[in-house]
Amino acid sequence: MSSAPSSVPLLNISSSSLSRWYIDTRALASNPSSELPLLSTLRPEDQTKVKSFYHLPDRCMSLASSLLKYLFIHRACHVPWDKIVISRTPAPHKRPCYIPLSSGGGGESNTNGGRPTTTSHIEFNVSHQASFVALAGCIILPGQVVPNYDKPPSPSGGTTAESLNTPPQIGIDITCTDDPARRKRPDAVPSTEEALRAFIDIFAEVFSARELEIMKTASVPADYYPNGRQLPGSTSQQQYSIIYRLRLFYTYWALKEAYIKMTGEALLASWLRELEFTNVSVPKPQEQQEPPVLNDDDEEGKWGPPETGIHVWLHGKRVTDVRIEVVAFETDYLVATAGRGGGFGANNAETNAADDGQQEEGKSVVEVAEWQDLQRVDIERDIALCASGECACLD
């Protein structure tokens, strides 16, 4: 992934790559007098859900989430906008999904429908926090293994060779290290060593003992400082260490959320503390846009390079079929993505091919799907024509 994800009029969708799109709703949410764009193009039940949120930022995020899902289904499956129905997987997970019917009916979708004959299945996942909404999704072509929503996926997966013959599973999570919703709580931002440790201990049921200890005691790497060893402003060494370890906590949080969302589980998963991440590097904060501007296509300096060298462990064993990474957006956002199955997770596996494309001794060459850069979606430019039925996507 490049240091600055692209923003282009034609959003890329490929059968051999993972699409990642996002909408930044901060500017939209800052204008209480503005109407929610394209709300009327959604199905009535989806409009009702958007309107059910009391606070404008929450309504904007709900709208953006629906628009991203509609747009991905529309372009990946070539379904008319007004025929799209978003389903959910069976309880207890109830994860949003799209299952087209095999017998005409355009895009009508439900969990009891038949499998498609000409329409591709898709896998996608959406996350939102602090006015930032992102979708990661891929196409499952006819003839490839499709998801079985009645059978929960295994959290541990299998080998890379095995995962190539399983449906892709994708998870994405957005974490904000300075969510405005938390600023009103004085204890939400630890400022002392004691407060930081107490804050981390609140999540003892989420993280392993090793992860908790790392968050509490990690030293700031020399290359993390913005200007060598020079601290920003009047920040003391101790304060900077606390800021770093708090960001480390949120990095672990984003990684764990992305992984469990990939499996369709929730934070109540029984194996949560047995899921560990090692070799975790904290993405450095990037440039902040103040205030956020609507229709701002300038991505330069907002995104950092992805941290990709993370190792995943479950029940003490290395998970080799999952690819996972985390990247910083501006100063406060972290975006983690996890994938496996269908070639989307092979990059993190022990059976990876050598960089030069030659097979290493004792290892097998696998086909690895591309993960596209996060692309900014502009509601007016990229969605309006599709939502109104005036686009050429179905031609």
Automatic annotation (TrEMBL):
Signal peptide (residue range): none
SUPFAM superfamilies listed in its UniProt record: 4'-phosphopantetheinyl transferase
InterPro entries: 4-PPantetheinyl_Trfase_dom, 4-PPantetheinyl_Trfase_dom_sf, AASDHPPT_N, P-Pant_transferase_sf
Biased composition, class Polar residues, residue ranges: 156-168
A single cellular component GO annotation: cytosol
Domain 4'-phosphopantetheinyl transferase: 169-288
Pfam families documented for this protein: AASDHPPT_N (PF22624), ACPS (PF01648)
Catalytic activity: apo-[ACP] + CoA = holo-[ACP] + adenosine 3',5'-bisphosphate + H(+)
All copies of domain 4'-phosphopantetheinyl transferase N-terminal, residue ranges: 38-138
Keywords associated with the record: Transferase
Enzyme class, first EC level, given as a word: transferase
A GO molecular-function descriptor: holo-[acyl-carrier-protein] synthase activity
GO BP terms: lysine biosynthetic process via aminoadipic acid
EC numbers on record: 2.7.8.7
Region feature (Disordered): 150-171, 282-301
Family recorded in the similarity comment: Belongs to the P-Pant transferase superfamily.
Protein name: holo-[acyl-carrier-protein] synthase
Species the sequence originates in: Polytolypa hystricis (strain UAMH7299)
